[in-house]
Amino acid sequence: MATIRLERFERAHLPVLDELAADPDVLRFTRFPVPIPPGFAEAWWSRLEDGRSSATREAFAVVDDRDGDVLGIAGAPQIDRPARTAELGYVIARAHRGRGVATQALALLTSWGFSELLALRLELLISVENEASKRVAARCGYLREGVLRSLHLKGDLRSETEIWSRLPSDR
Fold first, then answer.
1. pTM higher than 0.70, yes or no?
2. Domain total for the chain?
């Protein structure tokens, strides 16, 4: 099992977005647009910078401690500081799945959410079909609250999304 760390996402990490955007599972289970538009990584970077300046978004590179390889991304696409809530998310490159990387990344991200954001509620939005991500959420102490019907639109298809949450008082 790889040991990982989270590094503040910087422009130098952008190539991982291109790798992730080429993965059919990432396109299926995340909010990456389909098809990926030209300039996607730069547009994503711009949204991240805007979110950082308003303290409503943050992202981290998931980095292998042994060799410094970037294995994926993790972050908070939505932070509501007045409400002390945040949506968290994680995407691991195909070659690094099944080794506990996503679980470690979510555990670190959860700790960050509670300690740095002082969040009172953390949320995950997971495709109902993404069994692997649901297992990660459960291993990290998140509880499934229900299904948000027809939440996301990709092309002409709307998808069902489970909402999972964790509070500081949860195990």
1. yes
2. 1
